[in-house]
Amino acid sequence: MAVEGVAVQSTSLTLLERARDRQDADAWNRLHTLYTPLLAAWLRSRGLQAADVDDLSQHALAIVAEKLPAFQHAGRTGSFRAWLRGILANVMRAFARRRTEAGLDGWAERLEDDTSELARLWDADHDAHVLRQLLATAAPEFSAAAWTAFRLTALEERPAATVAIELGMSVNAVLLARSRVLSHLRRQARGWVDL
User: Fold this and answer.
1) Which of 40, 61, 108, 149 sits CB 3.0–4.6 Å from 92 for a disulfide?
2) Quick check: is 32 in a domain?
């Protein structure tokens, strides 16, 4: 899923800088809210029990909280995403050592290997997850008609003229709604992703 003009490739340096400050509860809550579902989904994909998923997600985020002040962003797109992937791999490696569950052997190593299919899948899932969260927070800010016009033209890439007929709007109104939503998303994304 892509949205024109909204790049979802890495977590915002601004959000990371704010989250380093242990006094900025809003930034940490934002980071926690953004990443808990992603970590949980990846852990569930390994067939772990719900209690283990919750424990390991929280453990990974506790490590992020502890180590974030020392994290050095490499200046490359996806640096935080790769760092978080490494933390998840280490958490899973430690869990696998304590357990003898099938399916965990080698998973952490493949996840850490930047060239592996699993690492590429993590990157794609990360970006899609962040975009879904960004869209979910933006949707309530707009009327149903404006959001539908945006969704149909920007996300589903349908022609504005077709959408205008379907929604009973002028083409100009459809394009204006799309523009307003995209502008809003770009502003919101500055707090979540590097643009």
Assistant:
1) 108
2) yes
